[in-house]
Amino acid sequence: MRDETSTATASAGTAAAHDGAPRGDAEGYFHAIAKAIDGALLAGERYCASYAAESTDFVRMNRGKVRQPGHVEQRYLDVRLVRGARHATHALTLTGDLAPDEAAVRTALDALRTVLPDLADDPHLLLPDTVASSRSVGAARLPASASMVETVLAAAAGEDLVGLLAAGPVQRGFANELGQRNWHETTTFNLQWSLYHRGDKAVKSSYAGFAFEPDSLAARMTDARERLALVSRPARSLPPGSYRAYLAPSAMEEIAGLLSYGAFSGRALATQQSALARMQSDATLDARVFIDEDTEGGVAPRFQAEGFARPPRVPLVAAGRLAGALVAPRTAREFALAQNGANAWEGPESLAMRGGELPMADAVAALDTGLAIGNLWYLNYSDRTACRMTGMTRFATFWVEHGRVVAPVEALRFDDTLFRMLGDNLLHLTRETELMLEPNTYGSRLLSSTSLPGAVLSDMTFTL
Amino acid sequence: MPFDGPLPDLRLAADFWSLRFVRETCDSYAVRKNVPQPFAVSEDVGVMATVHADGGYGYAATADLSPTGLLGALERAAQWARATAHLALMDARTLPRPAPRGRHAPPASLVPALSRREWYELLMHESRDAAIDPRIVDWEAVCDVRTATHRLVTSEGGDVVQEHRYLLPSIGVTAHANGDTQQRSLNGQRGICQQGGAEVLARFGFSGSGRRVAEEALELLAAPNCPSGRMDVLLMPDQMMLQIHESIGHPLELDRILGDERNFAGTSFVTMDMFGTYRYGSALLNVTFDPTRPEELASYAYDDDGTPAEKAWLIRDGILERPLGGSISQARAGLPGVANARAESWNRPPIDRMANLNIEPGTSSFDELVGSIERGVLMETNNSWSIDDSRNKFQFGCERGRLIENGKLGAVVKNPGYRGISASFWRSLARVGDAATLQVLGTPYCGKGEPSQIIRCGHASPACVFTGVDVFGGAQ
User: Fold this and answer.
1) CB-based contact A69 B120, cutoff 8 Å
2) Is the pLDDT of residue B337 over 70?
3) Contact, B193 vs B441, CB < 8 A?
4) Which of B281, B302, B381, B424 has the fewest CB within 10 Å, making it most exposed?
5) CA-CA distances (angstroms) from residue A383 to A289, A316, B399?
């Protein structure tokens, strides 16, 4: 990622590569839209405009073949009109053609002007009063997506591969009447795939980033084939009970994902709805647990929807104790807190947990005898107040004896509290952490990531 | 306009093409802790082009609805079809080429639409009524008012326009005291979601429910934990909807059975050889795909591939009959299916979704359901859901429980939950409530697909009794 002087990227497509290009297209278009809003503003009005766009090739694969290939070109603008303490937002789709889009934005502003008289003053409105413009553009050169797919399927020849390739540029922008302009653009690919043995026995892999290297893909595919050989052994069915466990970073990601829904929210903590609310009084995690919102180390924009800048790092848990929260502007007003660039839902976008001292290569040896869990799945709270959560093992999960993988295991359900798993029962955190780009594509490709270590637990409770 | 009237002359060298136009609007109203939340309106408009060419399949989505934009999307979709034809999972020349023609409009609203001011007045009233005690630490009353217009045009002469209106009201209250937090809602997080206008509010007694929900939250704070052990459960419709969704709906989705979802949402314990013979549940279990109930969230006349939508039995008298698979999945699997190829919006391709999935009512009154239980728990309003990727081992939690002893309802208990295995759980279905116990609910938040999609599902269910279930309570 380069700042300020970087170049923007061009369009995606089946024929063309995702290529580096001079600033202009997408960013220039956004600036023109912002200028149109500036020009349409009446005296006494303020605005903030939040822009999200992408030009994405999606190729869905199954049985080592292409199931659904396609392309999505989308541009969304949320424009909020503010007069005094009254405000309302209009979210609209833009076409990419400037003239009709400028007209659509002006129409949206006109519509919002008819809404404001119906609304009450908002006591929790908080907007920036200083300008914090920024620009971050990641230059990338990806091969054409159809070519990437050919490479992937060739590397997996003979295997039952299922997965998704998503590739192309993603843009986020912000503008307001103060002249603040923020632009964040990145061109990435994210390949998520599984190789299946049979039934639910499979290994999951991913390869994501800014440069697609066939050799790197081949290495990952070789690793996946080797793990698939282990998965292909006769599976062991374990009875419910407590087992020593190693949670790989990709399993820890599911736990982090559950916590991301409100556990670190300033509002949820203030209203006792956070699963970590008890950490405001007596509950603690192991003293080796440090968790941050690490915007500096992630891929998320360094600004949020009202235009506030995100600090490089927000400590959330330090030495096992609650150290902070993600505080959105509205929460800041309501609870007299300091906002820290959080999004409206106060969820982390660049969650990072500090590693420990155990080399990851020694994790299975440190486990000795127990469950090596490659992935967890479908987590939810079974008792939110106690931060007790449940979920399933999935993909490459193995029974290990004396530091050696013995057999894959049938899917097991765990039900345990975070305060046990990352508290009294935490034996080791791996030294290395793994940066995982968010693969979900609900509505749009998400610019979030997690960076997590693996963890060895002295016991973990399984119920079904 | 592309939503009504003729389209520009679109010539494309391809075996088949379609254009699926979508326009959806949403007005979002919310009052939290007696403070009106920022008003938001959204309008999402775009088109999905799908092309079959040279045996390949491709799609392209754009918000540019100009003649140039439409042709560009079709050509891009054709490029994808041709570029991947030699790698295609299925020969697109074998796929259906629909030519549906029709129009679907929602029934006229039974009550006048509310103005913005009236919405805020209504929600403020419920919010104020919920603030009954200092232990109520957070509360909100919200409603989304949505409209949708979908038009599907195909190269074979198909042209279908469908319009829908949706209402999604919700009330939620959080109570806290002595280190415990309890949340109570009106039929769950957006559990009330139906097609229609303001008349939906009256169906659920929305007005006046703020105080009741708050009282029940306080009641939960004072309640003991649900007991643990093997016992009977009486699941109310706002828990049944989740039970149906997760352990019947998803496992019967044909694209899961065909393996498309294995990298993300998962596979299914159901296999293709089970249809026609497999005993899914007790003889009392009758499950239908029913797009014909007007108020239910996912009722429609045609799916997004243009297949006419009709009611169909998926499970009859406990025996599995057919999967939830749209026309393309049916062609791939050689099985009958239903009209359930659906897309979240213009920017996602259709895949198999469950739409309206209902349990047909039985013959037991509510009193008979309770009276049949010697020791058990009534559970209502889902608040936790987790199930394995084969849709078999599940664990669900509810907001509120009531003990049942010797056929009578007893004390309220908090944090009720239960776990089981789909393949055996439905065989323990012992009684099915009559139509008086049935509620038409649903969820607007069903997630699935690569790329990921959220979709609306409707679930109508009576209250049901299951025997010998593994029940548990909270950690404290």
Assistant:
1) no
2) yes
3) yes
4) B424
5) 22, 22, 11
Please tell me what DSSP assigns to residue A329. Answer: H
CA atoms within 13 A on the CB side of B191: 29
- Let me know whether A248 and A153 are in one domain: no
Q: Is the pLDDT of residue B219 over 80?
A: yes
Q: Which residues of A touch B344 (CB under 8 A)?
A: 443
**Single-letter residue type at B415:** N
pLDDT tens, position by position, A274-301:
999 999 999 999 999 999 999 999 999 9
Of B76, B176, B263, the CB nearest to A194: B263
Domain end point (choices A228, A258, A275): A228
Domain B16-222's class?
A: alpha beta
pTM: 0.95
What mean pLDDT do residues B385-398 have?
A: 96
**Which of A162, A195, A228 is a domain's end point?**
A228
Together in a domain, A223 and A246: no
> pLDDT per residue over B71-85, tens digit each?
999 999 999 999 999
Task: Give A198→chain B minimum CA distance, Å.
Answer: 11
Low-confidence ranges of chain A (pLDDT < 50): 1-23
Tens-place pLDDT, residues A237-282: 999 999 999 999 999 999 999 999 999 999 999 999 999 999 999 9
Report yes or no on A52 lying in a domain: yes
State whether residue A59 sits within 8 Å of chain B by CB: yes
Q: What is the pLDDT of residue B423?
A: 87
The answer to whether A272 contacts B57, with C-beta atoms less than 8 Å apart, is no
A234 is a domain residue: no
Distance (Å, whole) CA B169 – CA B188: 10
Domain annotation covers residue A310: yes
Q: How many structural domains compose chain A?
A: 2
A253 plus A182 within the same structural domain: no
For chain A, positions 84-103, list CB contacts with chain B under 8 A. 87-97, 100
Contact flag B64-A66 (C-beta cutoff 8 Å): no
Residue A203 and residue A279 in one domain: no
Closest B-chain CA to A75: B63
Range of the domain at A390: 241-462
The verdict on a CB contact (< 8 Å) between A91 and B258 is: no
Nearest chain B alpha carbon to A60:
B450
The interface predicted TM-score (ipTM) is: 0.96
Domain positions in chain B are 16-222, 229-472
Write the CA distances from A52 to A26, A286, B227, integer angstroms.
Answer: 11, 39, 49
Residues A332 and A404 in one domain: yes
Say yes or no: A194 and A47 in one domain: yes
Residues A170 and A100 in one domain: yes
What does the pLDDT read at residue A22?
A: 41
Chain B residues with CB under 8 Å of A194 CB are 262-263
pLDDT reported for residue B475: 74
Contacts of A74 in chain B (CB under 8 A): 46, 61, 63, 347
